[in-house]
């Protein structure tokens, strides 16, 4: 049972850092959180055959989070996938994703495999998925468009992790992360719909988590080197930068 960061950059990705998306690898289910660009390569490098992804959670309909979805679905279809894939998201996200697939005339892709769209209510702490190994909960967060943050509770290790997704500092994330071990919080910089690393530290302190990882931060030529120091101004726990292919074990 592990969580692999497939990308850690904000929307302006770089050679080293892909847009933020991640992968939860269990024995029975492989859950992708967001899907960007040509994601089969990153999945392969993470040791996962893209054909084995069982579930895809789309946090919000911005290109740096969902742009890879049509191509991933096409690649699965070209490899002869037959088994269903579950796709989860808010109504706003899934309606737009279906419209996007219509623009690609997916009804004319012969023998396309089944997709189950799971429309999530926009209220707090919705149970998104539960299986013998883990439970996933979603809550709305505060971004420019409807967006969800996620909580993962791992049954065997009794550990938990929360991912804020793109958001301003908000109480919804504090409540979602209450009692969690790890918070992965965005650190794009202080702006509408986003947070600074300092604000991420404040949220981690308010939620009482033990460990904070910053994600969705400026990389490449825009990189800043004081992000973790800024976060430590308000948070006493461990602070780190989530980086591409960083793996957290929850066995
Ligand atoms: Zn983003």
Jot down its keywords.
single chain, 251 residues, 28% strand, binds zinc ion
What does this protein structure show overall?
This protein starts with a strand and ends with a strand. Strands 6-5-4-3-2-1-14 form a seven-stranded mixed beta sheet. It has helices at 40-45, 63-66, 69-78, 91-103, 171-176, 197-207, 227-232; strands at residues 2-7, 21-25, 30-33, 55-57, 85-90, 115-120, 126-130, 134-140, 148-154, 160-163, 182-186, 211-215, 238-241, 247-249. The protein is 22% helix and 28% strand. Strand 12, helix 7 and strand 13 form a beta-alpha-beta unit. It is an alpha/beta fold. The radius of gyration is 17 Å and the shape is globular. It is built from seven helices and 14 strands. Zinc ion is lined by residues 11, 62, 64-65, 166, 216.
- What Rg is obtained from the alpha carbons, in whole angstroms? 17 Å
Shape: globular
How many helix segments?
A: 7
End-to-end Cα distance: 5 Å
Find the structural class using helix and strand composition.
Answer: alpha/beta
Largest sheet: 7 strands, mixed
Instruction: Identify every distinct bound molecule in the structure, by name, code or SMILES.
Output: zinc ion
- Lateral arrangement of strands in the main beta sheet: 6-5-4-3-2-1-14
Residue share in helices? Answer: 10-25%
String of helices and strands: EEEHEHHEHEEEEEHEHEHEE
Query: What would the average pLDDT be, to the nearest integer?
Result: 97
- Give the number of DSSP strands: 14
Poorly predicted runs are none
Give the amount of beta strand, in percent.
Answer: 25-35%
